[in-house]
């Protein structure tokens, strides 16, 4: 299975884009909420502090009224006044005007209000700047006990601002925490939502290069269907081109077989002509070359057949019987090399489903290799066993070096030191193709005889249990 490509930093990802588009509205909502909370908090702090100012104004009015009633002069430095207007955080100012508009006590900068701004008996408020700082002023004009008297109390806005900030923080901090906590949750949600994409990736990358069948569209989300359909369309076209190529190779190999057969017959005839001995070595070399070419063409044809889609018909057969039969066919070849070719298998049948012609071709190639690479007088053992059905060939040859193992199934690959033996390098490619068609696997390793061990194992339940 191919791995997903390494992700580079800063590369756009769907997860990041979705996360961004989901978080952006949340942040905008937080900003709007912050602004309205700020306004509300200011309003609340203003109202709360205005009430305090109003209380002080009322108390000051009581004090002025009782002082004047007892016919005492109004002393701005009096303890009561300093207690009333004293505050640890804010600076407070006051002013007391009598009915004629004369300042009796307090700060002259707190000017008496024009009559049209008075809303007696209610306290009126306004903002002004004193000593370079904004102050909030409460003005109370008395119309009952002391007609025309005006009491003003003003304070800087430190407490108000603190209160507003406190209220703002109380609302905004929990909201920001909720948004921060929701990011991993959103991330998780997006990952879950994008899971079908990952499934599709696995479906595609889990395929072999030869599998050009359409990708199943079941369980594919509607948004991905156009992509999958386009991909299936491409696979279909690609498959058609590939089949056309295979047909061409099969046809070409088939066409070449006839002139080769004629050539072989002609060479045999020339070799049998004992009257002309001088050309015999040339004919012998020609015969060897034609035999190699015939073998190559035969292998090409077998490979084309094993890859062709036309041979998909599978039928039940007995693996043990076929293996015994194929091994028997190689007894004369084994005898020529004085190789002890044996067969081990159970008496009972090993039922499998498949294309018996292709499976025979695969077996022939494995036994042929073993006989080819085993030394003169060596041993080759073909065997079958059930559960799961396996056909194995072990030999006493040189074996396959570990470095060669990943390469031997490639087409036309022949190990460097196998050049002494004849071969086209297509045998194991045919075996692997046949295995793929049967849901089987071919493995190569070391045999107990000291050489190579090849196993052809049927793994697909449907194939191995007819
Ligand atoms: N039993 C074996 N012992 C040692 N090496 C082997 C054995 N079988 C295969 N190989 C190695 O794997 C290579 C590929 O084998 P493969 O059957 O594909 O090609 P070939 O036998 O050289 O040619 P062909 O089978 O087409 O005539 C061989 O050339 C050889 O190096
Ligand atoms: Mg071979």
UniProtKB/TrEMBL annotation:
UniProt-listed Enzyme Commission number(s): 2.7.13.3
Protein name in the entry: histidine kinase
Organism classification: Bacteria, Pseudomonadati, Pseudomonadota, Betaproteobacteria, Nitrosomonadales
InterPro entries, A to Z: 2CSK_N, HATPase_C_sf, HATPase_dom, His_kinase_dom, HisK_dim/P_dom, HisK_dim/P_sf, Sig_transdc_His_kin-like_C, TCS_sensor_his_kinase
Keyword Mitochondrion: no
TM region positions: 20-38, 167-190
UniProt-listed Pfam families: 2CSK_N, HATPase_c, HisKA
Organism: Thiobacillus sedimenti
Broad EC category: transferase
Keywords, in A-Z order: ATP-binding, Kinase, Membrane, Nucleotide-binding, Phosphoprotein, Transferase, Transmembrane, Transmembrane helix
Compartments (UniProt record): Membrane
Gene Ontology MF terms: ATP binding
Domain of life of the native organism: Bacteria
PROSITE patterns (alphabetical): HIS_KIN
Catalytic activity, as annotated: ATP + protein L-histidine = ADP + protein N-phospho-L-histidine
Residue ranges occupied by any Histidine kinase domain in the UniProt entry: 251-462
Main location: membrane
CDD domains cross-referenced by the UniProt entry: HATPase, HisKA
């Amino acid at each position: 299975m191919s791995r997903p490509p390494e992700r580079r930093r800063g590369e756009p990802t769907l997860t990041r884009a979705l996360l961004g588009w989901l978080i952006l509205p949340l942040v905008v909502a937080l900003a709007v909420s912050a602004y309205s909370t700020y306004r509300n908090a200011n309003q609340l702090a203003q109202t709360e502090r205005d009430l305090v100012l109003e209380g002080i104004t009322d108390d000051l009015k009581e004090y002025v009224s009782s002082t004047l009633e007892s016919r005492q002069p109004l002393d701005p430095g009096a303890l009561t006044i300093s207690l009333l207007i004293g505050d640890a955080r804010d600076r407070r100012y006051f002013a007391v005007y009598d009915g004629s508009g004369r300042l009796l006590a307090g700060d002259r900068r707190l000017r008496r209000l024009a009559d049209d701004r008075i809303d007696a008996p209610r306290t009126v408020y306004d903002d002004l700047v004193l000593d370079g700082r904004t102050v909030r002023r409460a003005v109370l004009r008395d119309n009952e006990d002391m007609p025309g008297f005006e009491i003003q109390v003003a304070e800087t806005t430190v407490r108000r601002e603190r209160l507003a900030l406190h209220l703002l923080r109380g609302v905004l901090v929990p909201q920001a925490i909720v948004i921060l906590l929701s990011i991993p949750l959103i991330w998780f949600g997006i990952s879950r939502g994008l899971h079908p994409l990952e499934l599709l990736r696995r479906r595609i990358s889990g395929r072999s290069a030869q599998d050009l069948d359409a990708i199943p569209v079941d369980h594919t989300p509607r948004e991905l269907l156009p992509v999958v359909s386009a991909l299936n369309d491409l696979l279909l076209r690609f498959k058609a081109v590939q089949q056309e190529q295979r047909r061409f190779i099969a046809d070409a190999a088939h066409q070449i077989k006839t002139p080769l057969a004629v050539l072989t017959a002609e060479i045999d005839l020339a070799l049998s002509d004992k009257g002309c001995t001088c050309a015999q070595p040339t004919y012998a070399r020609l015969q060897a070359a034609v035999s190699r070419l015939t073998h190559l063409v035969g292998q090409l044809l077998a490979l084309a057949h094993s890859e062709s889609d036309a041979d998909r018909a599978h039928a039940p057969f007995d693996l043990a019987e076929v293996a015994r039969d194929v091994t028997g066919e190689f007894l004369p070849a084994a005898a020529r090399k004085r190789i002890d070719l044996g067969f081990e298998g159970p008496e009972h049948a090993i039922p499998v489903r498949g294309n018996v012609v292709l499976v025979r071709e695969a077996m022939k190639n494995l036994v042929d290799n073993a006989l080819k690479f085993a030394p003169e007088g060596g041993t080759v053992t073909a065997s079958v066993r059930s559960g799961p059905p396996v056909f194995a060939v072990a030999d006493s040859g040189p074996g396959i070096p570990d470095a060669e193992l990943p390469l031997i199934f490639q087409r036309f690959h022949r190990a460097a030191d196998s050049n002494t033996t004849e071969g086209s390098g297509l045998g194991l490619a045919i075996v692997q193709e046949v295995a793929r068609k049967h849901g089987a696997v071919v493995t190569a390793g070391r045999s107990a005889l000291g050489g190579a061990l090849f196993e052809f194992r049927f793994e697909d339940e449907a194939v191995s249990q007819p």
